[in-house]
């Protein structure tokens, strides 16, 4: 099975204890499915119910399909400025 | 012209004004965000900014593109700094030029508000008591910051 790397930043990287996680990727996996898999990882239970996800540097909807080559990231509440 | 940059070096707002300035425009608007000494009642000693750099750069570009289309500004620049910033240091600067003041002012306002909603930049506040915490603007009871 293919895999996808998910980048983690700021508080989310602290929660999961790593800057990236690698997850198995079945064909037809959506953003929502990926979030479901992330939730089973150690430390992930404190993530909010619907964290923002970016695919290829753009915010993604929950039903967007993920490809193995996609750049996927979990985006904690932003605080720039 | 428009330009978006994420820097680790000091921001010089005067150079932004120089870059957008021209005799053709009657108005230039400059917004500067700085590191404040108190947040949410806690005494801050410094702020550590970090970013998902490639996306933050792309998102800043998208915001400038929207702002340019919306306010028809002639020149627009945003610089955001990351790394460890001391109190009073400039974290963000936005400069816009237009023939008239209203679009120039509205444009800088638009850009900073959008940055706060959607550019993947985070800050970890360092407090004078030695503790550190990620700032989460979605949490209640936070005073709006610059």
Structure characterization notes:
- The complex is a heterodimer of chains A (81) and B (146).
- By secondary structure, chain A is of the alpha+beta class.
- Chain A has a single domain (2-75), classed as Beta-grasp domain (Ubiquitin-like (UB roll), Roll).
- Chain A has helices spanning 10-16, 31-39, and strands spanning 2-7, 20-25, 52-55, 58-59, 72-75.
- Chain A has a five-stranded mixed beta sheet, covered by helices on one side.
- Chain A starts with a strand and ends in a 6-residue tail after the last strand.
- Chain B is of the alpha+beta class.
- Chain B has a domain at 2-33 and 53-120: Aldehyde Oxidoreductase, domain 3, CATH 3.90.1170.
- Chain B has three helices and nine strands.
- The radius of gyration of chain B is 16 Å and the shape is elongated.
- The interface between A and B is medium-sized, with 17 and 32 residues.
Provide a quick synopsis of the model.
Chain A is an alpha+beta fold.
**Whole-number mean pLDDT of chain B:** 94
| C-alpha Rg of chain A (nearest Å) | 12 Å
Helix content of chain A: 10-25%
| Number of helices, counting only DSSP H or I runs of 4 residues or more of chain B | 3
Uncertain runs of chain A: none
CATH architecture of the domain at 2-33 and 53-120 in chain B: Alpha-Beta Complex
| Amino- and carboxy-terminal Cα gap of chain A | 41 Å
Name the helicity range of chain B: 25-40%
- Broad CATH class of chain A: Alpha Beta
Taking all residues together, what is the mean pLDDT of chain A?
95
* Low-confidence blocks of residues of chain B: none
Beta-sheet strand percentage of chain B? Answer: 35-45%
Cα(first) to Cα(last) distance of chain B is: 26 Å
- Return the CATH architecture of chain A: Roll
Radius of gyration of chain B: 16 Å
Q: What is the N-to-C succession of helices and strands of chain B?
A: EHEEEHEEEHEE
Largest sheet of chain B: 5 strands, antiparallel
- The tally of helices of chain A reads 2
């Amino acid at each position: 099975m293919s895999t996808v790397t998910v980048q983690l930043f700021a508080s989310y990287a602290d929660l999961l204890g790593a800057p990236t996680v690698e997850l198995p990727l079945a064909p037809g996996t959506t953003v929502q499915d990926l979030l479901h898999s992330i939730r089973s990882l150690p430390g992930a239970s404190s993530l909010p119910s619907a964290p923002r996800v970016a695919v290829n540097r753009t915010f993604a909807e929950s039903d967007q399909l993920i490809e193995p080559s996609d750049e996927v990231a979990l985006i904690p509440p932003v605080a720039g400025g | 012209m428009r330009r978006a940059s994420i820097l680790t070096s000091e921001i010089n707002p005067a150079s932004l004004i120089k870059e957008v300035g021209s005799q053709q425009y009657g108005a230039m608007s400059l917004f500067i965000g700085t590191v404040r000494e108190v947040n949410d009642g806690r005494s801050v000693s410094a702020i550590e900014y970090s970013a998902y750099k490639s996306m933050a750069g792309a998102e800043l570009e998208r915001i400038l593109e929207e702002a340019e289309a919306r306010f028809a500004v002639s020149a627009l620049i945003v610089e955001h700094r990351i790394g460890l910033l001391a109190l009073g240091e400039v974290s963000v600067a936005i400069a816009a030029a237009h023939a008239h003041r209203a679009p120039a002012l509205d444009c800088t306002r638009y850009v900073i508000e959008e940055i706060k909603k959607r550019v993947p930049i985070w800050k970890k506040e360092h407090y004078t008591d030695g503790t550190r915490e990620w700032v989460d603007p979605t949490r209640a009871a936070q005073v709006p910051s610059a």
